[in-house]
Amino acid sequence: MEKIPPEIFLEICIHLYVKDLYTLTLVCKLYRKILWTKAVSIQKVWTCSRVLSFDPILPYPSLPPSKFMSEQEYIWFTLLADKCSICKIKIEKKDLFGCRYWEFSRFCCKECIERKTVSISYIKMTMPNLPKELLECLPYHKRDEKLYWSDDLHSIKTKYYSFENKQERDNWVKEKKEEVNEFMDEIYKYKWQDQYVYFFPYAFNVN
Ligand SMILES: [Zn+2]
User: Fold this and answer.
1) DSSP letters of the chain?
2) Can you give the residue ranges of every domain in the chain?
3) How far is the CA of 150 from the centre of ligand 1 (A)?
4) Complex-level ipTM beyond the 0.90 threshold
5) Distance, CA 32 to ligand 1 centroid (Å)?
6) Average pLDDT in the 113-140 region?
C-alpha cells in the first residue's frame, strides 16, 4: 500500500465488484480501515462498486442508502450478508430476502427472530403497566401482530425510567417518537424494494 498512491488505490477500487471490494477489506488492516470509513470519497467508491455489480435484468439495490445507513452498511445488508447476525448460521440464497429485517437493521434467521423478539400481545400480558408511549419509541416488524426486538425494548425501558425529571423524559419521548416515525417511513421504501425484486423477477424463474 505504501507504494500505491491513494488516488490510484481508489481508482482501482472503483472498478471492483462489491464481493471483490469486500474481499479487499479482508486482505489487511489498513485496507479494512480505509474502506470502512465514512469519508465521502470512500462512500463514492462503494456506490460505484454497487452500480457496477448490478445485474442488468435485476438492478438491486437500486435505491441509494437510507439516511440511517452508510453505503458500506447498505451493501453489506442487501448484497453480502448471508449468515444470521445472531446465531451465524448460513442462510440459503432463496431465503435471504425473508431474513432481512429493516425495522431492526438486522439480518437473522427465523429461529432467532422467534427467540429475540416479543409480540405486542406478549408485552401486554407480561408488562401490563408498560407505558403505551414507550412502545411508540421503538421500531417494530409487522407480521400477524407487531413484533419488537426484546433487547431494544429492555434498553429503552431502562432509559425511560432513568429520568428523574418528567419534563426531560417527555422531551426524550417526543424526540424518540419522531425519530422512530421518520425511520419507519424511510425503511418502507426499502421493504418495498425487496418485495418488488422478490415477487416479480424471481417469480418468472419458478419452474
Ligand atoms: Zn439465527
Assistant:
1) -TTS-HHHHHHHHHTS-HHHHHHHHTT-HHHHHHHT---HHHHHHHHHHHHHT--SSS-TT-SPPPTTS-HHHHHIIIII--B-TTT-PBPPGGGTGGGEEGGGTEE--HHHHHHHEEEHHHHHHH-TTS-HHHHTTS--EESSSEEEEHHHHHHHHHHHTT-SSHHHHHHHHHHHHHHHHHHHHHHHHHHHHHHHHHHTHHHHT--
2) 1-80, 96-207
3) 15
4) yes
5) 26
6) 95
